[in-house]
Amino acid sequence: MFEKRIVEPEDCMEERKPEEQKSLDEYSQKESQNTRPCGTGEVDSMNYGQGEQEEKSAAGDEPPSGSEEEEREAFSFLQETIKPKPVTGGQIALQLVKVAVYGLIIGVTACCGFYAVRPWAEETFHEEAQEVTLPKDEEEVTEPVSDEEEEKEPEPEPQIIVPELTADSYREIMQSMYAVAKEADRCVVYVRKAKEGENQRGAGAHTGTTGIVAADNGQELLILSDNSVCEGTEQWAVIFPDHTRYTAKLVKQDGNRGLAVFGIDRASISESTWNVVRVAELGNSNISVRGDLVIAVGQMFGYENGLGYGIISAKEWDHDYADGQCGVIATDISASPGASGVLFNQKGQVIGLVKGGILGEGASALVNALEVSDMKQVMGLLLNGETVPYTGIFGTAVTDELSEEKKIPKGLYVTNVQADSPAMKAGIQNGDVILEVGANSVTGIVSYEKAVLECKAGEAVKVRGQRLGSGGYVEVDFTVTMGSME
Fewest CB within 10 A of the end CB: N or C in the chain? Predict the structure, then answer.
């Protein structure tokens, strides 16, 4: 007889619970019943049972139901469940500290890299400067008068009631004017040569000139002033209303009209300065008339931050320069020789650029200004960094009376040609009459200036005119290469 022996796994040698022991005893009894001799040794009961089941299956007998489920239940105590170790608060805190340290290291590295690459990035990927567009002057529209309105009797003029004025009334008027002047002063600056501008409050009388904050193109704050400070230096300083001083560079100048534009890097301007400065609003000087109240701000009296009130006393004069002319606003405000400043109307708009000596020698020492409306086209070119074209011609319009009397064709009569100018090199002489510049017709100095400003410096332009000969005026053509006076 073979000896029946049940071998338990080592992992199951531990003391078992009564329920587990009972299941094991039942299994052992089943195993002993299914064990039989096979002639060579002990035969595993489970293998034998499987063989018996296969034989029964082959004979068509069905295996006993539920045998496999009973075996699984018998070995259910051998199943294990692996549980993760609990995470302590100290481990969580350690992980948070590690994340914070890594984040700090990455942040510091990114900041250092940003500041190291920033100059190169600003130079390579900087935003393009925006085009400066100046407002156009609105023209007065006069409605046609119908015949019925002409036949109507004129209405009586309204009675003007003059209120009784007192000292308090005068004080209120002056306070109102000062409020406008104070706001206008925010767009007035002073341009100095770099060495003379070291003192923030100025370096004395007439060491520089007055300028206006004319535009902001997104990259630079642009200052328009007289070009008298351009000669003999390559560095300039601009003093703002809060007495701060900033280095400026020359953008463009027009020596013909005596204007210059300087640029200040926007990033270099402090927030405190931005709070006290504003871009000037250009008004329409064409609609200003005699008797209008005006405000002069600048260096009119030999020192900075000067302020004067007055009225427009005259607008009959023009200031002539090569290729054009500009209207002059004369005032009753006193001024010193070489004065510079800005003329404002009652709305705080710029209507004139104060310039000394524009009415010639012998004129009274008063504030006189070039009309802004006549300079806007040139100002637009300079503020956008473009060169102002130049030919070098002085002239006057041929009137109807002069044309009939002297048989002179209507156009621009040339009174003078500057030496070594593009016009002289093209062969234009005194006494010639200019009729066309390119595709634009010319009837006088104003239309000639407009036609020239539409050209580009360095461009060869066809100029059609007439010249007096033995038999009268004959057609003559010129090719003028536009120059500049930078």
Answer: N
Hey, what are 402's tokens?
Answer: 């002069």
Torsion region of 354: left, alpha or beta (phi above 0 gives left; psi -120 to 50 gives alpha): beta
- Show the CA angle centred on residue 381, arms to residues 328 and 359, nearest 5°: 15
Could you tell me the two tokens for 427?
A: 């062969």
Query: Could you tell me which of 274, 455, 469, 302 has the C-alpha nearest to residue 377?
Result: 455
| Tokens (6 digits) for 477 | 């053509």
Alpha helices, H only, 299-444 = 376-383, 400-406, 422-426
Q: What is the 8-class DSSP label of residue 58?
A: H
Q: Is the pLDDT of residue 79 over 90?
A: no
Yes or no: say if 396 and 370 are a contact pair by the CB < 8 Å rule.
Answer: no
Q: Say if CB 32 and CB 4 are below 8 A apart.
A: yes
Sign of torsion, CA 195 199 204 205? positive
Mean confidence (pLDDT) of the chain: 81
Please give the Cα distance from 40 to 214 (Å, whole number). 117
CA 378/CA 383 separation, integer angstroms:
9
Which of 411, 483, 394 lies closest to 447 in space, CA to CA? Answer: 411
Helix (H) or strand (E) holding 301: none
Strand 366-371 to 340-344 pairing:
unpaired
Block residue for tokens 């009797």: 153
Residues 369 and 352 sit within 8 Å (Cβ to Cβ): yes
Query: How far apart are alpha carbons 275 and 273 in whole angstroms?
Result: 5
CA neighbours closer than 13 Å in the CB half-sphere of residue 464? 11
Q: What is the pTM of this model?
A: 0.69
